[in-house]
């Protein structure tokens, strides 16, 4: 059974521009590329990529872990097609393990590929665009001084939605992603995307201060 893009698209409802089906397609493209380079099972990676955020909006509205919701939906959906348990379990684990801030950690190469692809979509030029799209949708300030971002407090207490900005997102999450990836190809791509972000945020600081 090969899950098509059209069939997967039908499973996703309306979503914001940060986690819409375009995000799924970008993660799919990255996943397929990394899987080919690393020698991962392409069917598992592709299927998990297409289903990894299924039910995300509903899960977040209910305070649930969206990876757990997507994994449960994927298991039920794929079970109807008679997928062998070993391959079904591989897809479910990859979906469960794709979150940045939640267990479980990805234990298989396929799960690591999906994890890396999902995180790569959060950095680089696309990552910058997503951070500011989210910030605008939530009426966040455009800029804040990086020195004012208290990373230790964020790690201890979690996010403060009243103070969060795209700058906070870069300091506390995006700038650290390149060091959290698993695959060699994922890390190679991340290094280049990280440099793009560093240059952008340095330029933004300079423009805000009137230096450039």
Description of the molecule:
- By secondary structure, the protein is mostly helical.
- The chain folds into two domains: 1-102, Hypothetical protein af1432, CATH 1.10.3210; 122-212, Methane Monooxygenase Hydroxylase, Chain G, domain 1 (Up-down Bundle), CATH 1.20.58.1910.
- It has helices spanning 5-9, 21-38, 42-51, 56-61, 66-79, 85-96, 109-120, 124-137, 151-157, 166-172, 184-209.
- Helix 2 (21-38) runs antiparallel to helix 3 (42-51) and helix 3 crosses helix 6 (85-96).
- It is globular and about 60 Å long.
- The termini are far apart.
- The mean pLDDT is 94.
Overall pLDDT level: 94
State the separation between the terminal residues, measured CA to CA. 55 Å
The CATH topology of the largest domain: Hypothetical protein af1432
SSE class = mainly alpha
Uncertain runs with pLDDT below 50, 5 residues or more?
none
**Which CATH architecture of the largest domain would you pick?**
Orthogonal Bundle
Compile the SSE list and pairings:
Layout: H1 5-9, H2 21-38, H3 42-51, H4 56-61, H5 66-79, H6 85-96, H7 109-120, H8 124-137, H9 151-157, H10 166-172, H11 184-209
Question: Which structural traits does this protein have?
Answer:
Methane Monooxygenase Hydroxylase, Chain G, domain 1; 2 domains; 11 helices; mainly alpha
Short summary:
The protein has helices spanning 5-9, 21-38, 42-51, 56-61, 66-79, 85-96, 109-120, 124-137, 151-157, 166-172, 184-209. It has 212 residues and is mainly α. It starts with a helix and ends with a helix.
